[in-house]
Amino acid sequence: MSIFSEKLKEYMELKNEKVYTLSKMCDISRASMYKIVQGTRHPSRVEMVYQIADALGLSPFEKKKLVESYQITMIGKNVYEEQNHIIHLIDLFRERKQFQVEWNPAENHIEEKKYLYGKQSVNREIREMIKREAGKEKGKICMICQPNNEFLQQMLIAYCENKEVEIYHIICMESKESGEENSYNLKNLTQISTILISDCKYEAYYYYDDVQSHFYNLNLLPCAIITESEIIQYTPDYEYAIYDHKKERVEVFHGIFQQFMKTARKMFRMEHGLEKAEEWIDDHKIETILSYDDAGYFLVKQKGKKLAQNLKLFVSEQKVSEYSLSKWGAANSNIDEPEKIKRYRIHRELFPVPENFMMISECKGSIIIIFEKEKQSWGVLEIYEKSLKRSMYQFISNLDKSFLVY
């Protein structure tokens, strides 16, 4: 028995449906349907699962649960959870968020040290610090914290976007052995995606530790934001903090941050413009392309000289328009493609690939993400951190196991 066959049996009993009748309605042989129900065989494509669901007359909720059980059976629960995180991340690339704020003068402090209680007070102090640093000709914000404060992300974008403010962020990542669930690290990447696709000068670095132990035991104030002349230390839940702008104390924390930077590694490389993507494509042997339509393939073929023999192309729509080609910088002359490549169509209901998004993998597991931030303004993201890179490579390697239509 499998998770899918158990769920299928449950719904067959609920709908009082027999194997023979179901096989007739789905145009599947009785022997094959019996094996599917018993869990010794599985549908080859998710489209068959939808066919079975419709034959059983399942509600939208029941159909979703049956498809979910099929995907878990095909790729495993841990991989399925990671897959959902990545799909959510990709969905966030659809649209840039902009935050409007009032640029009234930032509050100044008379006392050197101040104790803060409550999330509202802590967030207000963080906002004023960011505002003061953003008002400088060349500001610098250093952060040692987890990216779990949406308000902090919003304030960084609101006050620092398109300004000469450098933002350095050190994040604690869970160290997992190969094959273990990686949802926490993927969640970290998802949480910084808003600032990642903004026009802030933002760089993220990582180190490995037991996150639960590091942030939620006796380390009372493990998070910190440091500017040129200010420091705020706070708890992970943002309920308690200490603010200080005494020179000696700020210098101590600058030293602590530099020590962290010596052991931390860069999480990703963020570039702008399709030219940077073309350089990456030219230097790697491309194995897989995930894009909305064939235009992604034409761009890679036009710029790359090292396409793998078993190149796979996953698309949501196979038709490609002149607009789509020009958007990706692909030549119209390449529209008549004589070569045969492995083309797979993704079920749009399960995974709606954004039109402004493309993911490319290299044979050795390197990953690059290309996305349109605004019209003809491109972001190019190359993942460095090994667990994120492994999860994304595994994600595109498993696309043909749970997302495809006939």
TrEMBL record:
One GO MF term: DNA binding
Pfam families to which the protein is assigned, alphabetical: HTH_26 (PF13443)
InterPro entries the UniProt entry points to: Cro/C1-type_HTH (IPR001387), Lambda_DNA-bd_dom_sf (IPR010982)
Residue intervals of the HTH cro/C1-type domain: 7-60
Alphabetical list of CDD domains matching this protein: HTH_XRE
Name the UniProt record assigns to this protein: Helix-turn-helix domain-containing protein
Species of the source: Candidatus Anaerostipes excrementavium
Phylogenetic placement of the source organism: Bacteria, Bacillati, Bacillota, Clostridia, Lachnospirales
